[in-house]
Design brief:
about 280 residues, about 0% strand, mainly alpha, Methane Monooxygenase Hydroxylase, Chain G, domain 1
């Protein structure tokens, strides 16, 4: 007769009265009791968990982007490269999440959509911060968050800091000419592509062996934006598949609004220079 396996005999901890357990460390009681459905429909749980987990991944993305920017500002480029690589993988995870949400049909979503009220992913303050951190800065986008002073202050403070791309351009300017107007621009406004900056990055790409760290930095940024663009595209196709061309719950144009976002380039010169090489 086979004896049942007892992990305690190999030293596994089995008693946790007054001791740190797995659930304690991760505060699972808080996380796993945060899924409050507003209807009795089956698919609302999927919808809630999809968005909650996306917000958790965005929380980590912000953590990594803030650390990467701080590292770059202090000249620690190699640690920043690792953080940027991790952010790209985070957005790979966010992309995979759309595959799960796409199992929800239009009929499934319609059954509980009215329970959302005016709530919408458009109002995600973490996503807004990520966009601001990356340089897509539009002060008008503070308005959806004005009902909370803490969020307005947090996002306004972000607009006063250099974006990740601004910091990258400062590193570029140490070795290659970058116009002062670009380096000293109004940080609260969106970045505008510059022919001179494109040529500066092209200099790096024409002789990567002479500018290896800048070359690696550029490719890390392109890699991240690649995944970020895929995330936006998957967002568009998922929304179109589920609600067609209805307006979004938050009042946006739905698919039409999301499609406009596909045209936004975060690091434009790094894409445009490829035509000239």
């Amino acid at each position: 007769m086979t004896t049942a396996y007892d992990p305690a005999k190999e030293g596994a901890q089995m008693a946790f009265d007054g001791r740190m357990s797995y659930g304690d460390y991760l505060q699972l009681d808080k996380i796993l009791t945060a899924q409050h459905t507003w209807s009795d429909t089956h698919d609302e749980m999927l919808f809630i968990i999809q968005h909650q987990t996306s917000e958790l991944w965005m929380r980590l993305a912000i953590h990594e982007l803030e650390a990467a920017r701080a590292a770059m500002l202090t000249g620690r480029r190699r640690p920043a490269f690792k953080m940027l690589a991790r952010v790209a993988r985070i957005f790979e995870q966010l992309n995979s999440a759309w595959d799960v949400l796409r199992t929800m049909t239009p009929s499934d979503y319609t059954a509980f959509r009215d329970k959302l009220g005016q709530s919408s992913g458009f109002q995600s303050y973490q996503y807004r911060k990520i966009e601001f951190m990356l340089g897509n800065r539009n002060p008008a986008m503070l308005r959806p968050h004005e009902h909370r002073d803490d969020l307005t202050q947090m996002l306004t403070a972000e607009l006063a800091q250099p974006s990740l791309y601004d910091v990258a351009l400062r590193l570029l300017a140490v070795h290659v000419d970058v116009p002062e107007a670009v380096l000293n621009r109004d940080l609260s406004h969106p970045y505008e592509a510059s022919d001179a900056v494109r040529e500066a990055w092209a200099t790096v790409y024409r002789a990567p062996e002479d500018h290896w760290e800048l070359y690696e930095l550029a490719e890390k940024l392109v890699d991240f934006e690649d995944y970020f663009r895929r995330w936006r595209f998957n967002h568009v196709t998922t929304v179109e598949r589920v609600i067609g061309f209805k307006r979004g719950t938050g009042g946006t144009g739905g698919v039409n609004y999301l499609k406009r976002m596909l045209d936004v380039e975060l690091f434009p010169e790094l894409w445009h220079l490829r035509t000239e090489l």
